[in-house]
Write a structure and sequence with these properties.
With about 375 residues, this protein is α/β, with parallel strands linked by helices.
Length: about 375
């Protein structure tokens, strides 16, 4: 086993250990402060239901299960697994009316289902004073993906669509513009999360297309013979090993896993002509209609939007809460923290998803060979 192999193996062990042992911080005692009779009635009904079925990213399973049980006494049945599998299950359940999931953490993929009317109005279910007090939220407002501002609450916002490059082969100041990536020295040396599989690949392709234009996007992805992967950890290791020079669509969690283990050559690019987008990750929450534990789902919604719920999510997923009283955890990647005065593209809005990204990705599919 090489020295880099040992570091990567150690990083995986450390990451698993951190998730298993991470304790949630304060706020647990006051997250229900000044709650009225309506909340107490819902909480009592939720405890009678006894449990709640939640689907979301696997990293959240422990913190969510432990934190919610600690604060409410209600058991969580957590479904993790692959993102695509979770999305397929959600779509199948709501369309057939055979709903087993009460609450879902997702991104933006369910927007079409939302528009078809399969999910509950969350705006009517946000009850706790600490959640509905807008001083607790950035810009004094809740953030919704859907234009109706009812069905897809987004609780996190962090900088994404930032290229990660190999600092051993690219000197400081050498990669400061998206245009630099069209240099012949990068041909065949760029790896991208496959945009045909959605997720971070679709996010960064959509960002590049919206920022630099579809012709530039084609010149980059096709002209530079970009290598595609659906394994973000593999992509990150390729950059760390100098197999490829630049990675597009590398999640910050993979970046952190290796940098925290001592790998120094993974460098976030600072692009002067496109600083990145604001992403919500999997922090968009959904409540399927016909769920078996509706009161418990309402309690989850309010807990997730509270300070302890946001602390749990931010720490587990290494992202940034939109709550003003939940500062970025020390473990997050510095480049993902939005900078004051910098304008980022909002990728989690119905208008962008419908009118911009969908059009760009359709052209990308044609350019690189469809799905």
């Amino acid at each position: 086993m090489s020295s880099l192999d040992r570091i990567i193996h150690a990083a995986a062990v450390l990451a698993i250990g951190a998730l298993a042992s991470g304790a949630l911080s304060a706020h647990a005692a006051d997250w229900q402060a000044n709650a009225g009779a309506d909340w107490q009635n819902i909480l009592a009904a939720a405890k009678k239901e006894g449990r709640v079925a939640v689907a979301g990213p696997a990293e959240l399973a422990g913190p969510m299960t432990e934190g919610f049980k600690r604060d409410t006494g209600i058991e969580v049945e957590f479904l993790g697994g692959e993102t695509r599998d979770r999305s397929s299950r959600v779509a199948r359940e709501v369309r057939t009316g055979k709903v087993t999931l009460d609450f879902v953490f997702s991104g933006s993929v369910e927007l079409p289902l939302v528009k078809e009317g399969y999910f509950e109005d969350q705006s009517a279910k946000l009850i706790l004073p600490g959640v509905t007090n807008m001083k607790n939220w950035i810009n004094g407002e809740l953030k919704w993906v859907d234009n109706t501002q009812k069905y897809m609450l987004q609780t996190q916002a962090f900088v994404s669509s930032v290229p990660i490059y190999d600092g051993n082969s690219i000197k400081p100041g050498e990669l400061t513009s998206w245009n630099d990536l069209l240099d012949s020295k990068y041909k065949g040396k760029i790896v991208a999360y496959d945009p045909r599989s959605g997720g971070p690949g679709a996010q960064i392709a959509g960002y590049i297309g919206a920022t630099k234009g579809i012709d530039f996007l084609k010149s980059l992805y096709v002209g530079q013979e970009v290598v595609y992967s659906q394994n973000s950890r593999q992509m990150t290791e390729w950059i760390a090993r100098s197999v490829h020079k630049v990675g597009l669509g590398i999640p910050s969690a993979d970046y952190l896993t290796l940098t925290n283990a001592g790998i120094k050559n993974l460098v976030p690019a600072n692009m002067k002509d496109g600083p990145g987008a604001l992403s919500g990750g999997f922090s968009v929450v959904l409540m399927p209609k016909g769920a078996p534990h509706p009161n418990a789902a309402t309690v989850v919604l309010n807990w997730v939007a509270s300070a302890p719920g946001q602390e749990a999510y931010s720490k587990a997923l290494k992202t940034i809460s939109r709550r003003t009283d939940v500062p970025p955890d020390a473990s997050v990647a510095a480049y993902t923290v939005p900078k004051p005065g910098v304008t980022y593209q909002d990728q989690y809005s119905e208008d962008y998803l419908t009118n911009v990204r969908a059009v760009i990705l359709e052209q990308v599919m044609v350019a690189i060979g469809g799905k």
